[in-house]
Known about the structure:
The chain has 324 residues and is α/β, with parallel strands linked by helices.
Amino acid sequence: MKKILVTGAVGQIGSELTVALRKKYGDDKVIATDIRMPSDIELRNSGPFEILDCLDSHHITRVMQIHKVDRIYHMAAILSAVGESKPNQAWQLNVNGLYNILEAARQYQCSLFFPSSIGAFGPATPKVNTPQDTIQRPETMYGVTKVAGELLCDYYHKRFNLDSRGLRLPGLISYATEPGGGTTDYAVEIFYEAIKHKQYTCYLRDDCSLDMMYMPDAIRAMIELMEAESSKLIHRNAFNITAMNFTPSTLSESIKKVIPEFEISFNIDPARQKIADSWPDSIDDSSARNEWGWKPKYDLDAMTNDMIAKLKGKMSLPEQQKSR
Ligand code: AKB
């Protein structure tokens, strides 16, 4: 029976991934870890939780030994916008942290999930329908760490036969835990503001096209990839995946169908706009579809409807119950 370790379990992806993994494999089979305690009561009380810093290699191996871990979802990372303001910390956590996890996975013969990103592409990458195998010369520290991560995971697979697998995730939209420090965070913030104030000032241009995905699809993709038949995986460490493609303008049109009074305005943040401009407008995920059957469930309007319904429910809860 699998014992799964999740790093970064308090973050935007980790918090929902931990709950989904506990539902699938059993509460006691999933060890949630992070450098901070979760405020979310369900996450804290539904199974084992350990404070763990991925830069502390001895502590990683101790936790793995104690819990007899045989699969790792390594979600602890610094995102693109924060990575540009703190490049040193981004390298430390995103590359040295991953290296420590890879070494522990090799030692204890664990399978490993690594989240790469559309940020692993750069200005020289073909912008539209970006192929699976293409130029990767990112100009952000976040992108540099993601390419390094993809290569490290490939290396450990080829050299040590480690079962490493990964996805190039697009921007993720979720209601349970807010994102922090990303370039695509506007696509979450906009929903909170639409419900609270019927107005949102966006820091990206109205026509800035990026690939996106609703969190339930992303969580399912991570679990399905790790369960996929190994022999079918050609691009095991960095599958392009996407579910939808929109601009701030088209997202606002979708929100207006549910909240007709909603208005969007723009106050461009040059730093985050520069990052977004260096990423693809849209990516081709046919390798994921062909090699392990990837298929998203939520398109833009389905995501918008669900997001607004779920956020309204969450916002009407008493303060202490709002973290999920
Ligand atoms: C970010 O904006 O940094 C992330 C990503 C696309 O990797 N959401």
